[in-house]
Write a structure and sequence with these properties.
Strand order of the largest sheet: 10-9-8-11-12-15-14-13
CATH class of the largest domain: Alpha Beta
Distance between the termini: 30 Å
Number of strands: 15
Order of helices and strands: EHEEHEHEHEHEHHEHEHEHEHEHEEEHHH
Structural class: alpha/beta
CATH superfamily of the largest domain: Glycogen Phosphorylase B
Low-confidence stretches: 398-402
Number of helices: 15
Length: 402
Amino acid sequence: MTAKKKALLVTTVSGFVPQFEMNNVRILQEMGYEVHYASNFQNPSYGDDNRRLDGTGIVCHQIDFIRNPFHLSNREVYRQLCALMEGERFDLVHCHTPMGGVMARLAAHKTGTGPVIYTAHGFHFFRGASPLNWLCYYPVERFLSRYTDQQICMNREDYARARAAFHAKWVDYIPGAGIDLDEVRKTVRDGDRAKRKELGISESTILILSVGELIRRKNHETALRAVAGLGSSDIRYVICGHGEEEDRLKETAGKLGIADRVLFLGYREDILEICRSADLFLFPSYQEGLPRALLEAMASGLPVVCSGIRGNRDLMGEGEDRGGGLRYCPGGIMVDKPDDAKGFSRALRLMIEDRERWKDMGERNRERSEDFSLERVDRIMRKIYRRMDEMKKAPFLADLGD
């Protein structure tokens, strides 16, 4: 009897696979792989527990990951991963998240496990990143690319850099984790604006929505200051997400005098329904790979105000520079500097004054979202996994391409 093939997925936090990678799990299972998942299940993200893994057929392995790359506990993480790989004899390793990618590739190299795929959901070094980010992360990623058979990048900037400077056997671009447009269309078609009533928001009130973890990288404080700068009580700002900054952000809203206009909804599994009830999407993040939250808002037909960063530009387009730190896109406005609260206020005010164009902007965003469909991502990932399968069978052909 032929032994079942085994694939190992590795991420730092355990909510990552059910949130972003379940289609890849299904592809691997269809290809005959038993899918294993190494993560820190005591530190869930994108929810409060790991129940979304129930019934998936995924075999879970606790690894005591931490996010701090300089902590001595990473030695134990490395030891745990080496022991897991030596014990299970995996036929494929697919790693995600910065520390998951670092530790998995080191352990795979040590144990001779592979081939190895690393998906970068956004390198920490990018145009506009701090010199410290470049000093800390760029040399590590460049070095570890030697231990990477397949590098996957989710935005054009990362892809160009990996192609030019890294050493992976293959480097491919995929348009994000993919969005199920059929699900979005069904929600938009069948939904109504009932969430407004649930939230106590009238139809005459402008509902501005943000989605993202309450962490510094998502830059919610700038959004709060921008909303405060509008000086209007006929606006409600809704934030979906949870995280370590929640108490501080609520305190900030109070100090800005807008606590009665801001709703913190926590982590939600009905984002598409909430998008259906919103008028504008506000996304001021400092750093993104290719943001799923922004893509879902665009696919739902929402006009957008967002920061003009890598990832956001991939989705919205480069836009037209009309001065004042704002770039005009078919589906909204990008603000050049993420910490420009006055710029975000100005962009929101311009959008509110131009509400007759919201429908057209939303339609342009729906059209653009089709380039990032799950169907398109699925085709690319199947090709990549088949390539790794063939590499495992005939490693001497590894450098002969497709």
